[in-house]
Specification:
By secondary structure, this protein is mainly alpha-helical. It has 3 domains: 92 residues, Orthogonal Bundle (Fumarase C, Chain B, domain 1); 230 residues, Fumarase/aspartase (Central domain) (Fumarase C, Chain A, domain 2); 98 residues, Ribonucleotide Reductase Protein R1, domain 1, CATH 1.10.40.30. It is 62% helix and 5% strand. The chain contains 20 helices and 6 strands. The strands form 3 sheets. It has a two-stranded antiparallel sheet. It has a two-stranded parallel sheet with strand order 3-4. It has a two-stranded antiparallel sheet with strand order 5-6. Helix 11 packs parallel to helix 13 and helix 12 packs antiparallel against helix 13. The protein is elongated and about 100 Å long. Bound molecules: arginine (ARG).
Amino acid sequence: MTEQFSKKAEAWSARFSEPVSDLVKRYTASVFFDKRLAQYDIQGSLAHAEMLAAQGIISAADRAEIERGMAQIRSEIEAGTFEWLLDLEDVHLNIEKRLTELVGDAGKRLHTGRSRNDQVATDIRLYVRAAIDDIVALLQSLRGALTDLAERHHDTIMPGFTHLQVAQPITFGHHMLAYVEMFGRDAERMLDARRRVNRLPLGAAALAGTTFPIDRLRVAKTLGFDDVCHNSLDAVSDRDFAIEFTAAASILMMHISRFSEELVMWISPRIGFIDIADRFCTGSSIMPQKKNPDVPELARGKTGRVYGHLTGLLTLMKGQPLAYNKDNQEDKEPLFDTIDTVTDTLRIFTDMASGITVKAENMRSAALQGYATATDLADYLVKKGLPFRDAHEAVAHAVRECDVAGCDLSEMSLETLQGFSTLIEQDVFAVLTLEGSVAARDHVGGTAPNQVRKAIERVRKQLAE
Ligand code: ARG
């Protein structure tokens, strides 16, 4: 990893009598990973320089030089020709050093009224803000794909489970829309966290503020922040926003993981409810018959990694006195990995959702196996005047009888059913069918195909906003 970082730069501090060892240099450097922040570092520096010039702290000519140099650095980074130096520790010092090489003293004036402490906090906030915007857009695409799937299967019947036992018939569309709700809350949570991400630390300098007549609100406006951080000590040391973001990401991944778990079960030939496109699966090197659902399994596994980052960040912060401590440098890798994991996962799942094929016949026969309409029979008896508890008991007897006879409730004769309650009449068979059962749950939030259609309309409206 270090080869690409040449060692030609001189040790940067005049205060020390001996250089740090190579090992310590590597140990304390962050440039391997924080160079990802480069474009935000430049953006922050340009806003800072603009403000310094507007306030008469640097000259307009210096500002112009800084802009010229930064434009060049930007294109060097994009072209991959920028030389990142381990000796220069991090992204900030690397860019500043190159700027000075390119434009001389103007480059050395850029850091007036600023510290790497408020600089790095600003960069990460810009980075996380952009990540949130990406993630929210990806969540909406995934919701769109799941909604399309729900629409195709608004009346496809499957068993709904509690305790992983067949409970009541539901529609597959309704099941998919449950995840659409979850991912909708994830987007809300991300946007809520964004409000606290979107505040400007710059101007706090090292920890106490600066003696220069800076204009923080101007910088905030240039960078699109809603406000400044109102306490300089808090501004440089606060990483709540990173923790909140990772917490929201953890909940999101928990939803992904639950969905994955269902996909893995449904794909299993023992259940056989769905198939997913081959591009999300792999075979086995030894068992030629296998088609393994690698993508959902891996997503379930990667959820643990994001939880780990949340725990890591919370632990990183718990022992830190005010204000900035070098510990904070450890915030980046977990954050970056969280962002990569979540964005890749959402992209893949959106594609995978459109590659799901439903085996409606298998779903249907599974729904017929577990007396899924027993509650419907109880409700039927209640509607004929029987108290619910008595109805429950009558149906329990009927189910036992079915168990012995090896048939479904709907397959019993009217006479047999009447043995459990004299209230039962010919019209009972309408409620004992799977279609009758789902269609009857026709209220907001219910599984009736009619409601699934309405819910889809509601989601589509949200997505169009
Ligand atoms: N690389 C550092 C970080 O990520 C930048 C801030 C360094 N500040 C300092 N006083 N050493 O946190």
